[in-house]
Amino acid sequence: MDATSQQSARALEPLAYHIALQDHLREHEPQVWDKVAGGMDEAELAELRDTMLRNTYRLEEAGHPQVFAALRTAMERLGIEAPATLYQANDGTMNASLIYVPGEVHLTFFGPILEKLSEAELLALMGHELSHYLLWQMDEGAHHRTSRIFDHALSFPDAKPAHRETARLLSLYTELFADRGAAIAAQDTAPAIAVLVKTMTGLTSVDPEAYLRQAEELEAKGGKSQGHSHPEVYLRARALKLWWEGDPQLEDWLEARVQGPLSIEGLDLIGQYRLTALTRGFLARMLGEVEEGSDEIVTQVKAVFPDFAADEEKLDLAKVSVEKIDDATRDYFIALMFDLAMADSDATDVVMLAAAKTAAAMGATERLTGSLRRDLKWTKARADKLVAQAAKAA
């Protein structure tokens, strides 16, 4: 890959989740989308400046030439042109943050972070924080608007779990975006990873390559991020390295490591609509498996989806495979099949056989037999007989 191709492959663009969430809000919450605006008014901006002057030390270039040199280089490499003000807070924890003001860059540093970074690492730190500014400026401020919508939603004590999960995922993906900006500013991943590790540990000297080996070892154990506002550092390091190298499986990797399998116990807003669509397709498939759906079964389906149509698209079971959904969601689909089986006593045996065949195709036979014994009080022999009949029919 030549230099031009590499630069194109590493272009800093919003991640797929940023775009999907923005599209979701525009389509399903247009009133909320139109109501929330971004930015600060003059009074809020004046209050911010007054607060920062009272509670921080404002850095000036004459006293901190290396810091401002790194800032200018990072801004140039990220294509940002805006007046910038830097502050040092009195918090002892190593970190940095951006206060977003449209058209102005305001960065705050915490603890001894400026003293513990090399020249390249300082570039990476600047690139990370500036990337937050860049994202909020993109698409005429649309991504900042998305963020503000969830800031507002979470400010209410009765915020729904789906709102909290959506805000969490948005924050995780935003940090991954900013990590990419750190690597672009430093023109390498090593300084960006070093900043992550130094911020986590407080150390003055770290080995980014050694930490990447550690991250690969942890990744082998699988599992999704449990981070609330930032993904775990080892995931961030791996994600950045894969992006920098142009890994073609990156999007699938990110979905698995950041979001994980679809879980009915932890749905974000997009996941809610996705599960609804899967449910419709699943029910359509079950009706097709039963062949002649009785009036009672159709009535059961229409109790969930009043607009359910005879030509509803049937679900491809690959979309609910072991890798795509978790056990709680598998149990949900099993419960749906039980509901259909109980809707018409004359069709129970036929529906249960179809359920056993479907569960086998989903890799959920053990979940099915467990539910039969626990929820329907079947004996082990009866459950095993149904599974055998389904295997023979298949």
Automatic annotation (TrEMBL):
Q: Name one Pfam family in it.
A: Peptidase_M48
What Enzyme Commission number(s) appear in the record?
3.4.24.-
Keyword terms of this UniProt record: Hydrolase, Metal-binding, Metalloprotease, Protease, Zinc
Q: Which GO molecular function entries does the Swiss-Prot or TrEMBL record give?
A: metallopeptidase activity
What name goes with this protein?
A: M48 family metalloprotease
Which organism is the protein's source?
Answer: Qipengyuania aurantiaca
Please list the residue ranges annotated as the Peptidase M48 domain: 73-134
Q: Which domain of life is it from?
A: Bacteria
User: Can you quote the record's cofactor note?
Assistant: Binds 1 zinc ion per subunit.
- What cofactors does this protein use? Zn(2+)
* Family designation: Belongs to the peptidase M48 family.
